[in-house]
């Protein structure tokens, strides 16, 4: 059996955009295909920031490991919301995952993102100012000097949730995925996949859906596959 493990054929997952299925597909293009939408890497069936995370993980995962992402594609279909909490939580999870392993030149941005995300939740959830989730505290503890700098940098600043969702959250996700991909770690592909999988599971829970939508069946992707290597 080839890289796909239990599959005899793999979706033609590749980096970047593809004009049509004959040219290949990225994670979100295949999602658009399965959802019955117009071929696009920005389909309506998936929350924009979750889709951005999926595209980034798809593009920065190695060619050898990318086929493993395909089993998660059904789980993003129908996952969308206009609740700004989704954007904040997606950005926070990405920043927390990346901060402990990202290169130093990205850690400041990630630490600021954690403080900023938590501040957004104070506003959106009516929490006491300065509330920090344990996951954020643990992530910041891995880079204490950077965390202290970020705390001082964020002191007295105010960002509206709408601006955070529009501007900050996409930048945080991009920086986080780049940071993980640049980490000098032997398990970079696993870390990227784990981040995407955990975020999808979060979103399915927020949407009131079961954690997993099940794996793709061969007949679902029969028009956009290539033979698995043996």
Could you tell me the strand content as a percent range? under 5%
Instruction: Give the number of helices.
Output: 9
What is the average per-residue confidence, as pLDDT, rounded to a whole number? Answer: 86
Helix content: 40-55%
Give the SSE string: EHHHHHHHHHE
Question: Which spans have pLDDT < 50 for at least 5 consecutive residues?
Answer: 1-8
Computed Rg: 18 Å
Shape: globular
Termini gap:
6 Å
How many individual β-strands?
Answer: 2
The profile of the biggest β sheet is:
2 strands, antiparallel
Number of domains: 2
> In order across it, which strands form the biggest sheet?
1-2
Which structural class matches the secondary elements?
Answer: mainly alpha
Please characterize this protein's 3D structure.
The protein is an all-alpha fold. The protein has 2 domains: 72 residues, no CATH class; 123 residues. The protein is 53% helix and 3% strand. The protein is built from 9 helices and 2 strands. A two-stranded antiparallel ribbon has the order 1-2. It starts with 8 loop residues before the first strand and ends with a strand.
């Amino acid at each position: 059996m080839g890289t796909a493990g239990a599959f005899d054929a793999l979706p033609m997952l590749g980096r970047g955009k593809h004009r049509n299925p004959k040219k290949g597909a990225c994670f979100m293009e295949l999602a658009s295909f399965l959802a019955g939408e117009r071929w696009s890497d920005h389909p309506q069936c998936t929350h924009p920031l979750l889709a951005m995370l999926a595209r980034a993980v798809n593009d920065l995962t190695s060619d050898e490991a990318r086929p493993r992402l395909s089993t998660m594609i059904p789980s993003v279909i129908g996952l969308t919301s206009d609740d700004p909490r989704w954007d904040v939580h997606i950005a926070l999870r990405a920043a927390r995952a990346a901060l402990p392993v990202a290169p130093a030149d990205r850690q400041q941005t990630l630490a600021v993102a954690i403080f900023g995300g938590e501040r957004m939740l104070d506003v959106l959830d009516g929490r006491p100012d300065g509330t920090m989730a344990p996951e954020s505290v643990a992530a910041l503890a891995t880079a204490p000097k950077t965390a202290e700098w970020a705390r001082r940098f964020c002191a007295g600043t105010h960002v509206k949730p709408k601006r955070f969702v529009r501007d900050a959250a996409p930048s945080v996700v991009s920086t986080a995925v780049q940071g993980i991909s640049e980490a000098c770690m032997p398990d970079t592909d696993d870390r990227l996949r784990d981040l995407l999988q955990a975020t999808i599971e979060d979103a399915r829970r927020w949407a009131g859906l079961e954690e997993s939508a099940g794996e793709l069946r061969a007949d679902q992707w029969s028009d956009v596959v290539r033979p698995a290597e043996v």
